[in-house]
Amino acid sequence: MKENIIYNRPDNEVMMKSNKDFIVIICKEEDQVQPVMDRMNTDTCYLSDYEEWDEGEDMKWILTFKVTDEYEQLPEKN
């Protein structure tokens, strides 16, 4: 992924944006959240922020993932 690029098309299932060491993904439906988390959580990428935005039919789920390099240590899991 290129830095500071928005990857959006009208027919996308989710919207994506990269920003330095972060990838922001906006889900249109709640049932998209878990599959996105399953794909994005890896040894070098983890969920750093979660936000529910708006309400009702317009509700969106904003997931921010932090991408680490091999020298950074991942946070401890609870």
Task: Give a topology summary.
Layout: E1 6-7, E2 14-19, E3 22-27, H1 33-40, E4 45-53, E5 60-67
Q: Which tags fit this structure?
A:
78 residues; 1 helix; mainly beta; single chain; globular; 10% helix; five-stranded antiparallel β-sheet; 40% strand; 5 strands
Structure characterization notes:
This protein is mainly beta and about 80 residues long. The protein has one domain. Helix content is about 10%, strand content about 40%. Strands 1-2-3-5-4 form a 5-stranded antiparallel sheet, with helices on one face. The longest helix is centred in the middle third of the chain and has 8 residues, at about 35-40. The relative contact order is 0.20.
Brief overview, please?
This protein is mainly beta and 78 residues long.
Major sheet strand order: 1-2-3-5-4
Distance between the termini: 30 Å
* Structural class by SSE content: mainly beta
Low-confidence stretches: none
Beta strands, count: 5
Integer count of domains: 1
Shape: globular
Largest sheet: 5 strands, antiparallel
Helix percent band: 10-25%
Overall average pLDDT: 84
**Beta fraction:** 35-45%
- Rg over CA atoms, rounded to whole Å, is 13 Å
Q: Report the order of strands and helices.
A: EEEHEE
Q: Count the helices. How many?
A: 1
